Amino acid sequence: MTRVMVVDDQALVRVSFSILIDATPGLTVVGEAADGIEAVDVYAREKPDVVLMDIRMPRLNGIEATRRIVADHPDARVLMLTTYDLDEYVYAALRAGASGFLLKDAPPTDLLAAIDVLAGGEAILAPTVTRRLIREFADRPEPRRALPRQLDGVTDRERDVLLLVAQGLSNTEIAGRLHISTATTKTHVARLLTKLGARNRINLVIVAYESGLVEAG
């Protein structure tokens, strides 16, 4: 059973998400919170498998709440929810340690699928959010950084995989593009996570663009 926590300052949103989740086999809501401060406390008490976290909330926003939760619980799986795909806080949320990012108006099936993905140890980004993240790097005026030393150990095939991860492709899509098995793709991704010191696929995207290994656009 996947244990889910719902964090949103709007009671109607919390109730709607909770009803949807509790009605889905294999999922259950173990806690709710109306702001970031409450979210940190409820997480510490309930230790849910996945957190649905709103970004804009009173007292403490979702980004800072996520940062505090991940700092105390490195294995926390937080799915950030927002009304806008071009939310200016996308990049900050990912840097805070979020494992996924989804629009609030996404179909219920997408939300449930995202919960399953995060519970399974992977990360997820809505396609529009991936494009937003790429633009974040493309619009930066600072010169390209030197490649970090740890990238020296990345193989040519792993670079191919990293490029496709940075484009927002899933393991299945990467396998099809490179004509390899999904299991092999997972192995490459796992090795990249280890070599680059990344906690999830989102961190791989950030490392790829920040280092200059992958060019924005």
Structure write-up:
- Pfam families: GerE, Response_reg.
- Residues 147-212 form the HTH luxR-type domain.
- Residues 3-119 form the Response regulatory domain.
- By secondary structure, the protein is an alpha/beta fold.
- The model has no long low-confidence stretch (mean pLDDT 83).
- The chain is 50% helix and 13% strand.
- The chain is globular and about 50 Å long.
- It has 2 domains: 2-135, Rossmann fold (3-Layer(aba) Sandwich), CATH 3.40.50; 142-211, Arc Repressor Mutant, subunit A, CATH 1.10.10.10.
**CATH class designation of the largest domain:** Alpha Beta
Shape: globular
Number of strands: 6
H/E topology pattern: EHEHEHEHEHEHHHHH
Gyration radius, rounded? 17 Å
- Beta-strand share of residues: 5-15%
Please state how the strands of the largest beta sheet are arranged side by side.
2-1-3-4-5-6
Helicity range: 40-55%
- CATH H-level superfamily title of the largest domain: Response regulator
The overall average pLDDT, rounded, is: 83
Q: How many strands, what sense, and barrel or not for the largest sheet?
A: 6 strands, parallel
Instruction: Tally the structural domains.
Output: 2
Label the structural class. Answer: alpha/beta
Uncertain stretches: none
Distance between the termini: 40 Å
